[in-house]
């Protein structure tokens, strides 16, 4: 038993070199060696005579490192089970929640409201979610006319916004 402890202690330098595969931090390296030696001494009854002690210690060290890494990752990970959790981690760059965005919203709304009424009505209905055929039924015009008016409304709005941005 004392001989086993002595053999493990004699491999301290070798273990220290092996920790370089896992970390360059001296403190982390020493912690990893201590954890490895502690596990080896705790489970010495699992070690079989005439096997490679150094290889056994390397396996223990690798497993200790992996387990510690996984613990660290779990500690840093927060679970979110909301329905649309994807959107929680996306930066909000496309809304008008900033002060500048509020002005942009007002400017866009102004440009939209300045287009002709015959173009504005189908355009607003489309932005509210109505389908082309629903708009055509509501306005009693052919579906091609609805598509044409929405197309021209978009073009007018784009012209006004380009002129505004200059």
Can you walk me through this structure?
- This protein is an all-alpha fold and 166 residues long.
- The protein has 2 domains: 2-76, Orthogonal Bundle (Rna Polymerase Sigma Factor, Chain: A), CATH 1.10.1740; 99-165, Winged helix-like DNA-binding domain superfamily/Winged helix DNA-binding domain (Arc Repressor Mutant, subunit A).
- Helix content is 69%, strand content 0%.
- It is built from 8 helices and no strands.
Q: Mind telling me the CATH superfamily name of the largest domain?
A: RNA polymerase sigma factor, region 2, helix turn helix motif
**Name of the CATH architecture of the largest domain:** Orthogonal Bundle
Global outline: rod-shaped
CATH topology of the largest domain: Rna Polymerase Sigma Factor, Chain: A
The average pLDDT value, as a whole number, equals: 81
Count of separate DSSP helical elements: 8
What series of H and E elements makes up the topology? HHHHHHHH
Q: For the record, what CATH class of the largest domain applies?
A: Mainly Alpha
> What structural class do helix, strand and pairing data support?
mainly alpha
DSSP helix fraction: 55-70%
